[in-house]
User: Fold these one by one.
Assistant:
Number 1:
Amino acid sequence: MLTVQLDDIPAEGLSLTWVEERASLLTYMESLSHVDFDFDTPLQAEAKIERAGHSVLIHGKVQASLRFRCVRCLKEFSSPLSSTFELTLYPLKESSLREETELSAEKLESNFFEGGEIHLSEIACEQIFLDIPYQPLCLEACKGLCPVCGKDLNLGSCGCVNEEIPSGFEALQKLKLDS
Ligand SMILES: [Zn+2]
Ligand SMILES: [Zn+2]
């Protein structure tokens, strides 16, 4: 876990490059349950950290290759993710809880740090997670699986007559016509 002490940031700022191994990313992955994914490569991160009064500015870049399961055809695929970010971190004062409720909207969208410590590992992981698609697709035009026979339609059509599941009403009508 990479943590920087506020007091260790020199006036000209601090530039860092580091790698987050899969093992340390796993702890953050647990809190993100809506998408099934894994890391193919460690996460590469770089950041420039500067002090601005009591707050801290971070410009950074994170990249990693992730493995997802396509929501349409259920195939696993790898996808490189990369994201640049700019964050302002404000000191969280435990003593002034009242102040916290009066924070401006701008500050509410921001991040905080506590006890003079900047948790860079956590920030880097959060940034890559923001880039994770809500519904991963192997291809934008993935055709998915046939709802009748389950064949992967990207590999060719399956020959099923009706590729769409008929609604109950249509099925009923068909029965009547057939009889
Ligand atoms: Zn797919
Ligand atoms: Zn089929």
Number 2:
Amino acid sequence: MAARQCRSSLPVPRGPARMRPRLLACLLLLPSAAPLVTAWAQPPAAAAAGPRLDRAWVTRAVEAPRVAHRTFQSTAAKTAVSYHLYTPAAYDREPGRRFPVVYWLHGSGGGLPGIPQLARRFDAAIEAGRIPPVLVVMVNGLDMGMYVDWRDGSAPVETVLARDLVDHVDATYRTVPTREGRILDGFSMGGYGAARLGFKFPARFRTVSIMGAGPMQEELAATPRATPAQAQLLLQQVYGGDQAYFRAVSPRRLAEEQAAALAAGSLIRVVVGDQDETYRNNVAFHEHLQRLGIPHQWRVLPGVRHNPNAVLDALGDDHWAFYRSALAPAAAPPAVSPPASPAADSVIKLTFLGTGAPRPSRDRHGPAILVEAGRRTLLIDAGPGVRQRLFEAGGFALLTGVTDIFATHLHYDHVGGVADLWIPGWMYGRSTPLRVFGPPGTEEFTAGLRQAYRWDVAYRQIVGITAPGSVLEAREVRPGVVFHEDGVKVTAFPVAHMPIDPATGRPGALDGATYGFRVDYAGRSVAFSGDLRVGPASELVTQGRGADVVVMEVQVPSPGNSAEAQRANVSLSVHTSPEEAGRAFALMRPRLAVYSHIIPPQTTADELRAATRPFYDGPLVTAFDLMTLTIGRHLEVGMAPRRDGELFEQSGAVKR
Ligand SMILES: [Zn+2]
Ligand SMILES: [Zn+2]
């Protein structure tokens, strides 16, 4: 291979790096010669007496607008690891907003010189409104790391990136911390890496873009763009000289192992130029995916060589169209405003307004979940914070548009926001009564509120706010179908949440009931656990079987023996641990299991997942405030727009 072929076609900073031997850069897998985004120059050094692949976990910093060089402590690497982060202007402008994350995987050589251009491409697309704002993490996967945990343990690149880096990014920045909020993209070795990580961890990454990828062949011997000796070197150091290991970690094998999960819920594309040396291997890979029944976009670019800029230029807006479809579920879906449009008729859409419980939390308000189905908009519970969150999710239209609350029970964290919805909803435009459906005791509860706010309501009526919207009605319901309007059916069922006397371990003396609800609409269904301690014989398990989605409360036991831990753990007798939830999910097998009503509110999604996994291995997400979930032919997790500045005078909310 001529040295010239291995040079980047992009301008590369002058300096010592330019003078390093190019042997390894020209190395096999396609990349090397690739200019730019991926393989841009910056070849790893190779000593004359036996080259050794580079293992520099912290790279130099590249300067570019809106790009920062950062490091984090990786457990797997046992050291600091660097990355570059692009943040869009909206990240600074909208401090209450969360952003999807693109993980960009470079080609061989480390990709540093291509970072400014890559960031510029994203920034231009975002500023032009072609894609919603995203964070772009430009990883350090080592010059020739292959995005694999090296066989000899010396460089756990896969674990550093797919586990440690993603956890760090979600813990450090305002991300959409779900699979829908993560995109893997890369070219050349980075395309191979995107396929590897995306196919191995479909629960972490929904979207996988595989461009000009290599090595995609079955054996790492003869390989495009490298001599057999070069391929041998890589095989030796990364894969331990073991073709079986190369095959075991290959995208081909991972596709076989994860075919069902990938087919069910991943967005995948494979792109390659027909003049790319990797073309044939990518055709074979595409056919492999077809045989496995894994849906994917397949794009061949005529006349395009192994060059990421040429690939992106040839894709044009198709590149961003793919990003738009990838980001649709994660980034700011359109406003939630009742009544839902006819196009939404065959889906149920949930907006998690509050995912906490009684403990105060900035991030998790009291339990309240908005349900939009066809022409109906309902609330399951109305905990503290519901007024603020409804406004953020849909402005005055939503605050005034909700007319029906389904209270699972009368605990303050579930009904503390009823007055907060009742009076402002009326003040700002609701002209019909607010109805509260709930267990026995609901009439007494609403009568108490009416009494408490008698003066306020009388006052506002005198100054001319129309009366019908000031009515607060109670509908005490028994288990069974409690609501059936416009095709939306709500079924109440009893759950085990009545108090247990700690002294006797027996039910305490208290009237009333606590419910879960199931909502059915147009063949879609979702079961809400309410508060309960679940068991295999729970009515929730019966109602949740066959439901698309089960929304479950959860309480993680508090460690230690302090007075506070003891008080917190008293409620374990009426709440559900991750283990109990996992066992119940395993019996119900919903298309998606969701945690909400999370105790303590600081519990992370990863902690809940880890605690649940031994008992349930199906799809699971931990809801966050303002997360949306659209239940249709596909399940889509997203994020409400979180508007907070709508002027009432411009809202058009008042119904006459
Ligand atoms: Zn509760
Ligand atoms: Zn409760």
